[in-house]
Write a structure and sequence with these properties.
Helix content is 35%, strand content 16%. It is an alpha/beta fold. Helix 4 packs parallel to helix 5, helix 17 runs antiparallel to helix 21 and helix 20 crosses helix 21.
Length: 664
């Protein structure tokens, strides 16, 4: 049976009560006796506010899926995180902006969340409600019930509603408390005069002119929370800074894990100055193992934070996660972090036998101690399994696979302490900016978007066209100062690749010519070795740039690819499909904080004598100048077509290839 919810005194904003003959406004249809309104004949009981009914013959049905099970399987960040964040404040206070910024942040971290906005709700679920006190109460009740369901499903429900009445907000809290769900009341405390200056909808102006009645803050009082869970004053703060206060609250309440903030430094693995002397003395007393140049490059990658949260060479648990899942997750409460390539240190069987059981050991490069590895863990390096999973082949003519097969039969993992910053003294160390240095530089130049371009080859005008077009797209999307991170790979590469010093000189010539805008470009060196592992490796390239502060990543055709060692295996002669890198990046777990920008194909447009985006409708007018053809022209001292590459940049490249000819 239904009973009346309560008698209502004020119906000013209910259009269905405009007719004085109240009973005639009840819908004329018959319902089963137990559902009829007891006051009005043939009333279904759900038309007028006076006849809101409460069902008494229903029983809550329990789900088969518990909150714990939902937490284990919902989102990328395990654990049940369902709760409601309720933002209250005047119109124009910034509730919706903060709510949607919080929603975007949580989703980027793999935490399911959804913003329930007042305007959006009133265009759908609550479009039959006005702004009387009764309707406002019902509006809040409905939203609170919906938010409860979201929270119960494991979602962080973010509600942004003026909700001016303390009693209604307390009702929303009680709905969650009765369901044993957390509810956080956030008071967006922005002064009325500030809200009026932000009046983008013109509502305050209309209210002042008497065109809107019952407008909160003007003709309707707002009951400010006396003891909110968090008070946020947005005056003088950016949306991001205001949102950070909510993020901190959720972290402190253990709703979400603690994530690295944009203005926080990545953990580096260098010993502090205070402890450096003690460590320098300790290394002389420890057993040591030598490391190769490539392993020193990986040590630099680890020490500077490119592979954070890794704190050393991988132990077996981390190695298995990386090899089989392309991710790391060392505890149930932490989000999955993409780490698609193993970062490991090999040792020989004799070194394993000599060192097993020691508490620490020294890593030496060319006889010089560079780091200490703590609590070493030795485990077998199954080389065929590693290569098959990482590269999709075990062909020993692949240059990096060849190095793996020539390395030790065991791996050793453990946390590292690095004695000092690794320098190569090749005249290029000033370009080797760490992730923290890059983050600081982006803050200094006030970049609101950073788009990274990974390359290991010289830049031609097609690359420049692509990078310039990406900046144009970001500007059109509303960013004010998007900055390009031009980030050539600076570690080991195969013998026939252009050496790093030549590439850097060529890149500088491109910037000097103005083909790329130096003002909006940061040129730096990425210290990682190249593995030529295709779609697996390109995830590593994106993750490392994400750690450096990039939030957009340009991916081209066949990233990290190479010709197949046996060119007869596939029709195109390549080891990897040229499109797979970009496609895999868009699906890869643990890269949620970076947006993948697809590479548009550029070619030489003969009709205008310059590089342009390829137009299939006039394909005969385009010339695809291959790397082989470019190298042949350079070796022979010939020039490419005008507009293919900046002339001074081409001269540097041509002189390099001609020097190889003379050396031979």
């Amino acid at each position: 049976m239904f009973v009346k919810r309560r008698k209502i005194a004020n119906f000013n904003n209910n259009s269905f009560l405009s007719n004085s003959n109240y009973e005639n406004e009840c819908v004329k249809r018959l319902l089963p006796a137990e559902t009829r309104c007891s006051k009005h004949k043939n009333c279904p009981g759900n038309v007028s506010a006076e006849c809101l009914q409460v069902a008494t013959n229903v029983t809550e049905q329990k789900h088969n899926v518990s909150r714990e099970i939902r937490g284990q399987n919902l989102g990328l960040c395990r654990g049940f995180r369902g709760c409601t964040v309720w933002l209250t404040g005047l119109s124009g206070a910034g509730k919706t902006s903060i709510a949607f910024e919080l929603e975007a942040y949580l989703v980027s971290k793999g935490i399911p969340s959804y913003g329930l906005d007042g305007d959006n709700i009133r265009t759908g679920l609550n479009k039959n409600l006005g702004f009387s006190q009764v309707d406002r109460e019902e509006n809040i009740r409905r939203v609170a019930e919906v938010a409860k369901l979201f929270a119960d499903s494991g979602v962080v429900a973010i509600c942004s509603f003026v909700s001016p009445f303390a009693e209604d907000r307390e009702m929303a809290r009680k709905i969650h408390k009765d369901a044993d769900l957390k509810f956080f009341e956030i008071y967006i405390d922005t002064p009325l005069e500030v809200c009026e200056t932000r009046d983008t909808k013109g509502l305050y102006k209309k209210a002042r002119q008497g065109m809107i009645q019952g407008f909160t803050g003007v003709t309707q009082a707002y009951e400010a929370p006396e003891s909110p869970d968090l008070r946020v004053s947005t005056e003088g703060l950016s949306i991001r800074e205001s949102t950070l206060k909510l993020i901190t609250l959720l972290e402190d309440e253990m709703i979400i894990p603690k994530f690295l903030k944009e203005d926080e430094a990545l953990p580096e693995l260098f010993v502090s100055e205070a402890l450096k002397a003690a460590l320098e003395a300790e290394v002389k007393t420890l057993p040591a193992i030598p490391i190769t140049t490539v392993e020193l490059q990986w040590l630099q990658v680890l020490a500077e934070g490119w592979a954070s949260p890794l704190r050393g060479f991988m132990r077996e648990q981390e190695y298995l996660q990386s090899l089989h899942f392309n991710c790391l997750q060392n505890d149930d409460d932490a989000p999955r972090v993409n780490q698609s390539v193993p970062i490991v240190l090999s040792v020989s069987a004799s070194d394993k036998e000599r060192l097993e059981g020691v508490s620490s050991l020294t890593l030496q490069y060319e006889g010089r101690p560079v780091a200490v590895l703590r609590k070493p863990e030795f485990y077998a390096q199954r080389k065929e399994e590693r290569c098959a999973r990482q590269f999709g082949t075990t062909n020993r003519d692949h240059p990096y696979i060849k190095m793996i097969y020539e390395s030790g039969d065991y791996l050793v993992g453990g946390e590292i302490e690095v004695l000092e910053r690794i320098q190569w003294n090749d005249g290029l160390d000033s370009y080797r900016l760490t992730p923290n240095e890059l983050r600081q530089k982006f803050r200094e130049i006030k970049a609101d978007a950073v788009f990274a371009f990974q390359l290991r080859n010289p830049i031609h005008n097609g690359h420049a066209l692509l990078m310039s077009d990406c900046r144009r797209q970001l500007l059109e999307r509303g960013f004010k100062n998007p900055v390009l991170l031009l980030h050539p790979l600076g570690g080991w590469t195969k013998d026939d690749d252009v050496p790093l010093p030549v590439r850097m000189a060529q890149h500088q010539a491109v910037l000097d010519s103005g083909v790329l805008d130096r003002k909006h470009t940061v040129l730096a060196i990425f210290p990682s070795p190249m593995m030529y592992a295709g779609p697996t490796e390109v995830q590593w390239h994106a993750k490392a740039r994400m750690n450096a502060g990039a939030n957009h990543y340009i991916v081209g055709r066949d990233p990290a690819g190479m010709p197949h060692p046996d060119k007869m295996v596939y029709p195109d002669g390549n080891l990897y499909d040229g499109t797979h890198g970009a496609r895999v990046l868009k699906m890869a777990p643990g890269l949620d904080s970076i947006e993948i920008l697809p590479f548009r194909v550029a070619a030489y447009d003969k009709s205008v004598s310059k590089m342009a985006f390829f137009d299939p409708s006039r394909k005969e007018e385009f010339d695809f100048i291959s790397g082989t053809r470019m190298r042949t022209l350079a070796r022979n001292g010939e020039n490419p077509p005008d507009g293919f590459m900046e002339p001074k940049a081409w001269q540097i490249l041509s002189e390099y290839y001609q020097s190889l000819q003379s050396t031979k």
